[in-house]
Specification:
Length: 183
């Protein structure tokens, strides 16, 4: 919860500084679904969760952002989730109302599993298992102009994520979200 408060404070600060200067800052929120493949598919069924972005539009072709992602996965073990703090960039091909892009996201990923354990006396306790890993995700997507405001766009993308925990986790994901540009 403390991490989310920090990100909320960062979003408010960027919004304030982005509005008071002529910089092209943006913020976004996406909904993501993930389909595990390879070894990871034998561990979990599918994942879902939000992605929060804070970014800077360097020019018409490049933008950079920091991201926070929280993925919940359906599995036999309750409460398995992966969070990440990552950095991403996008190279855009500007067309009229539709802007396709190629991107790369890289960062630190954290997995957390709560495993129920029976202790002497039949009391059920939970044990947390945590791991940290490096990961990256090549991305392809499109930014669509909403036509009702130049400040609001729709971002739809798909990516192939590779995470290097004790075992290599890979998954395909699809996300859709809204971007707000501070102009």
């Amino acid at each position: 919860m403390i991490v989310m408060k920090k990100y909320l404070l960062i979003i408010i600060c960027i919004a304030f500084f982005g509005k008071t200067s002529l910089a092209q800052f943006y913020t976004g929120i996406e909904a993501k679904v993930a389909y595990p493949i390879g070894y990871f598919n034998s561990q979990v069924e599918f994942g879902y969760g939000p992605v929060f972005n804070l970014g800077y539009l360097a020019n018409n072709k490049l933008d950079f952002s920091i991201c926070y992602e929280l993925q919940f996965f359906n599995t036999q073990q309750p409460n398995f989730r992966i969070t990440s703090e990552s950095f991403s960039f996008k190279y855009k091909i500007n067309l009229d109302k539709c802007i396709p892009y190629l991107g790369l996201r890289t960062g630190i990923f954290h997995s957390k599993t709560e495993i129920p354990a029976i202790v002497i006396g039949q009391n059920i306790e939970t044990v947390e298992r945590k791991e940290n890993a490096f990961g990256f995700a090549p991305t392809i997507g499109v930014i669509i102009d909403t036509r009702f405001s130049k400040k609001v766009n729709i971002d739809i993308s798909t990516s192939y994520s590779v995470l290097y925990f004790n075992s290599k986790y890979t998954y395909l994901s699809m996300s859709a979200g809204i971007i707000y540009i501070f102009k």
